[in-house]
Write a structure and sequence with these properties.
coiled coil; 10 strands; UPF0229 protein BCF53_11091; 3 domains; Rossmann fold; six-stranded mixed beta sheet; alpha/beta; UPF0229
């Protein structure tokens, strides 16, 4: 019998097991996702991406147990028995007399508190953005000389041992030995045949001197062939790899936020919370992603991350200014042939009535032909206005490239975010 032992030597922290923790997180995934979703709605913007404390009800962490069913015959061993002898019948336990079996508190029962544990920042973000992706992401033509792939480009006589091509080297070795020893092998075959022929003759007719010369020649030929190296430096061949530029799936996300006077502080906070979720999602899931921040009121301007989230500038409302600014930046820096272009716009829906048709025209004529996906969220509890109606017409004609949702209060932010960026089943 052979005993096999598997030893896990992966490095973990003191008193921790990465394998067991992963199994535990998978088992209580439902509770963790619920806690993560609640945390997103209750946290401040600056505390959005920290870890979280998770509580699991006691009844959900009980382990399954096996028990005997009713009926059948069983043999019991009762140590210290003073009441029964062999052959006695034992009554079944009467039901309803146990203590502590209910959920109510009692002076003699025992209970179990909720089990609480902490998840790390990475685990929090992993559960937060699970099953989300940028829609319609495709590989584009060469964006820059930064993206390369190494492809096989034949063989070379020089290289490092790690790149040696064994098959090609052995083929060259075999061909060299055949070419260099072909004449000797043919002569060896002839000499062997002559020796056999001479040895088959009667001793009186055999030419001993001639036979001895043949044997000596055979030995020389054999030594000549065997002294030939199995692999020579000339035989070595190495794989040759060439660096070729490849298409890139680099993407750019435009974040367009309305900061006009009609946007209350609460509305702005919800817009910032949505964009912060989007920003964390992009940074965590996509290595090559650029984010362009645009704030607008009557005019629009490109800003950095700090100014986008914390500037207090305000004014009137002309939504088309943000779309024109985005179009200008796309034309200057992000050609559609090389970039996956995305946009997310947040507003309260308030806009000059004459400007909403202009927004619709810019979207359909200039932006949607270039972008992969444009999402619009309207943060308002009021009835929709002209901007929503104009955008609704765009959505009806371009359902795959344009999406729009409404956010009424803070609890709607994360569900709407997931709805806009939910991974599509293939």
């Amino acid at each position: 019998m052979i005993n096999t032992y598997v030893v896990d030597r992966r490095l973990n922290g003191k008193n921790k097991s990465a394998v067991n923790r992963k199994r535990f997180l998978e088992r209580y995934k439902k509770h963790i996702k619920r806690a993560v979703n609640d945390a997103v709605n209750n946290r401040s913007i600056t505390d959005m991406e920290h870890g979280e404390s998770i509580s699991i009800p006691g009844q959900d962490i009980r382990e399954p147990v096996f028990g005997h069913g009713k009926g059948g015959k069983r043999n019991y061993v009762n140590p210290g028995n003073k009441e029964f002898v062999s052959g006695d019948m034992i009554e079944k336990p009467k039901g309803g007399e146990g203590q502590g079996g209910g959920n109510q508190a009692s002076n003699s029962g025992e209970g179990m508190d909720e089990f609480t544990f902490n998840i790390t920042q990475d685990e929090f973000l992993e559960f937060l953005f699970e099953d989300l992706e940028l829609p319609n992401l495709v590989r584009k033509e060469l964006k820059s000389m930064d993206d390369f792939v190494y492809r096989h480009a034949g063989f070379t006589n020089v290289g490092v041992p790690a790149k040696i091509n064994v098959v090609r080297t052995l083929k060259n070795s075999h061909a060299r030995r055949i070419a260099l020893s072909g004449k000797a092998r043919r002569r060896l075959k002839e000499v062997t045949a002559l020796i056999d022929e001479e040895e088959q003759k009667d001793r009186s007719l055999r030419n001993e001197a001639y036979l001895e010369d043949l044997i000596i020649e055979k030995e020389k030929l054999h030594n000549k062939i065997t002294r030939m190296p199995f692999i020579d430096d000339f035989d070595l061949r190495y794989n040759l790899s060439m660096k070729e530029p490849t298409p890139s799936n680099a993407a750019v996300m435009f974040c367009l936020m309305d900061v006009s006077g009609s946007m209350t502080q609460q509305t702005k906070d919800m817009a910032k919370r949505f964009f912060l979720l989007l920003y964390m999602f992009l940074r965590r899931n996509y290595e090559k992603i650029e984010v362009v921040f645009i704030r607008h009121h009557t005019s629009a301007k490109e800003v950095d991350e700090e100014e986008f989230f914390y500037s207090r500038e305000t004014g009137g409302t002309i939504v088309s200014s943000a779309l024109k600014k985005m179009q200008e930046i796309v034309d200057e820096r992000y050609p559609a042939s090389a970039w996956n272009i995305y946009a997310a716009q947040a507003s309260d829906g308030d806009n000059w009535n004459d400007d909403s048709p202009i927004c619709q025209k810019i979207l359909e004529r200039d932006l949607l032909p270039k972008v992969q996906y444009f999402s619009y969220i309207e943060i308002t509890p009021r009835a929709h206005q002209a901007l929503w109606q104009a955008y609704d017409e765009v959505r009806s004609r371009h359902p795959d490239a344009f999406a729009m949702e409404q956010i009424i209060d803070q609890a709607d932010i994360f569900p709407v975010f997931r709805q806009l960026f939910q991974r599509k089943s293939s």
